[in-house]
Design brief:
heterodimer; A: 5-stranded mixed beta sheet; 16 strands; rod-shaped; B: alpha+beta
Chain lengths: 490, 424
Amino acid sequence: MRFRTRLLISFGVVVMIPLLVFGLGIRREMSNRVTAEYTRRVDALVNVISADIARESDRIAARLAALKSSLVADDRFHSWVVRGENRGYVLDYAGDAMRLAGLDFLQIQDDDGRVVSSGHFRNEYDRLGPAVPGSGPALVRAATAESSFLALVTSDTLRISPRRFRLIGGIVVDSQFLARLARDPELAVGLVLPNDTTNADSGTLVVPLPPLPYVDATEGPGRVEQARIVVTRSSEFLTALRHNVNLWFGAAVLVAALAALLLAGWLSTRISQPLEARIAIGDLARQVNHDIKNGLAPLRNVFRHFAQVAREKPADLPQVFAERQRTVESSISYLETLAANYAKLSPQSERKATDVNSIVRETIGASGTVRTKLAEGLPPVSADALVLRRVIENLVSNAVDSLEGKNGTVTITTERGKNIVRISVSDTGRGMSKSELDKAFDDFHTTKPGGTGLGLSIVRRLVLDSNGSLKVETETGQGSTFIVEIPILS
Amino acid sequence: MYRYFMLARRRTLIAVLPVLTACAHPRIGAGPGGAGETRAAPEESCLLSTGGVTARSRTITIGLSEAVDPRHAPFARNDAERIVFRHLYDSPVRIDCDGHVRPGLVDRWEKDDGGHRWTFHLREGAQFWDGAPVTAQDIVFGKGGVGYTLAAPEKSVVALTFAKENDDVPALLGDPSLAVTKPAPDSSWPIGTGAYWATSATTTAQEIRAHTTRGDTLVFKFAASGDARDLLDAGVDLLITRDRALRDYAATLQNHTVVALPWDRTYVFVTAAAGSTRFDAGGLEQAVRAEARRAEGSSWWLDLRGCAIARDTTPPASTGQHRILYSRGDPTARELAGRLAALTHAVATGRAPDDFSDALAGGKDWGYVVALSRVTTDACRSAKDLPTWPASFTALVDTRPTAIVRRDVARWTVDQDGTVHLAP
């Protein structure tokens, strides 16, 4: 793994882990707070609804009390009670009184519980009315001619002459009534009646209020059962909130990760480039030191020999010089070559229109070892002609060397690609293994005796400096193909 | 001031009272002249007592508390259409409140062949509103019934032939549905033969103006506000109502007289569920706000064997719902359905009049509250509106309308079917 990659991963981990921990913490805290706030609101609403129902019940009771006073003083009602007159007036009484009192349900029952006058269903007279408990609010499902409805009722009693009557009045309990009780749009108020088989949604939290007496009077007087007003809060809101939190959290993590990666990439580049340069310089310095020492060692030995002969046998000095001249020249030649190679590590190039085929022909000259397959009509590329020549020289040199003196061929092929010109240098030499290929472009890596190990490194840098690309296809024992792609001059 | 159908002459009242109480079935009364060529006698006994009228006003206003649809003419579907159509469209004869046959499009008749054949003569100058003469063919075309045939042997003679002898003047031709009309090309009102005419041009959402060739005008005014008391306050000369509250209000007005009209309508409960009518029909008159009494008298709908109507033998498939249907525009039917629903733990459901007729014909619901005319001149013809499935009929209540009449304005008379109209 390259140093730059390792640096990138390290930066990513360092940034992402705290970010994730921080985000998860915030998410959990938000969820807990929302749930707690929700629970608090539901509890508050339950108390408010209980108070509202009590207040509605008091209002109904107050209206019944007013009706009671009016009824006691009503002569026509009195004459019906005493003499059976004005039956039609009595039948219509509850209907008129119900509308005037702003009620939705009103019945006058006699002592036997039979309907004397009914406001919500005029013609149910003489039927047994709902057996509503004596005091406090109750829920009654009452019949009309066309349908039935639910009412919150209270009752009162009165006595006219010898007879005792009961006033039962109420208001309709419908979806609007329940919605008024709910107040909070995110909470719902519902009713659970004795025969209600509908189950609450599994995602719904149900908070029951204290039970109310309930009488189903649609088929008769009914019997007193228990009904509950419940506050339901759907988990949808909480789920949606958490979903939103997760969504935004995910988006934040994504953005942060992206930023972190970019930052890590930038930092790793900024840090790795000088480090790599320093490492390369260090390696180069050590290599230069080593190479120079290698070159100087024979010279030192020769001069030490010359000094000894001059001191001990000065007359033999010319003969010894002649014997050792070859060694000195060889060492000097080696050092010159070494200097020339190091100089090639920092080439100066000037990109201009260059004919690839011409460069190839100039480079290989009259070499009979190298074959060419040059495409006609290639467009000029944007490259320094000298740089391109060095690239081809190195690749051809390596290719020839890879033949290791055996029979084989080296072929240079040029062809046009999309916006590029492709130069391929193929050989039928020894090829490279995977590990050799991994190191092939490293500085000072060589598999050849006397090689400097800088050839392919130089090639790679020269190609990249020319905005080109370099690919290698190789197989051990089958040879290698180095493919250089240089952009066409635009 | 409220009076019970106060007749003009007390002596006549004594004579006619048994007749009125027997108005549950068609009265086939003999003409005042007996057999042979007959002309109707004056019908003073059927005049509403509304004070002395020396000269009728040129413009008379009648209040209407229900809608009137000209397309229904001449078949009235409510009290408002009944009074309007009666003034615009003539049937061959009219049956007065005593059951006597009175002239309409025909003004004389005679018995032939020992009562097997009756010959009716068109009145002189009988014509449509557009001036076209009325012929006997206009009367008999497409008409006829069970047990008799109608023919037009001459241009102005209608022959009514019975399978059996009929010594009394036949009232069959008094059926309002036999009123003669013909389509009007430029009006929604069919062209009639009555003294008053109306067209689309004389009809607005607020009123219908009908005119005579002599320049008299009859204004039928609707209650624009929906409150019929406004019509009385506006000074209409006649208002027919079944609303007791409106009647009570009119009784407080000094210039108006309140006259109870004959019991003209019977509400029956019709069901296919044999033996299911287990409710106490007693006291049902308290369930309605209209003036009502326990159903009395014979019921023409109970014996229709002679009508040879094809009847289904199997009851229709029920919807399974314990539902009682009523016609939505009829408050009395609604109240009765409500009471029956309370007694039987059923549900009352209103239907628009046409839908109600369809539902009744289908018979799929548990029960129906149906309003029937107490009297009919032709039971077999009226039976066409009854279900053909095997139904049981339970008479619930009789109701009657009330006439609220402005005093000293016009002379009003009432027919056997309870329709009030200007006296000829």
